[in-house]
Amino acid sequence: MIKRGLASAPAAALLLFIPPAAAAAPRTHVVVIDKMKFGPMPAGLRVGDSIIWVNKDMFRHSATARNGSFNIDLPTGAKGMTEVKAGTTAVTCKYHPGMQVVLKVSK
Prior knowledge:
Layout: H1 2-16, E1 28-34, E2 37-38, E3 45-46, E4 50-55, E5 61-65, E6 71-74, E7 79-83, E8 87-92, E9 100-106
Parallel strand pairs: 1-4, 3-9
Antiparallel strand pairs: 1-2, 4-7, 5-6, 5-8, 8-9
């Protein structure tokens, strides 16, 4: 029985040195604002990902997080970027409060 315990010790030691799986690299997503609405929110958002907000509408807009984590002013033709944080964040346009979307970000 002692031999069994010793034989499994090297195998257990090897398990300690297996590197953890690499985290997925952060991605950049694009959300287009046009015709007085936000485009679809990207699926599978993860912490560290970025969103580039693009205003293709003829009106000035913003991408404003209700929790205060970001507020991007977007004149016509402008782009702005933010990194996303874990959780659910309601986003609105401060100029057009009827424009609303929700970001869902997993860890």
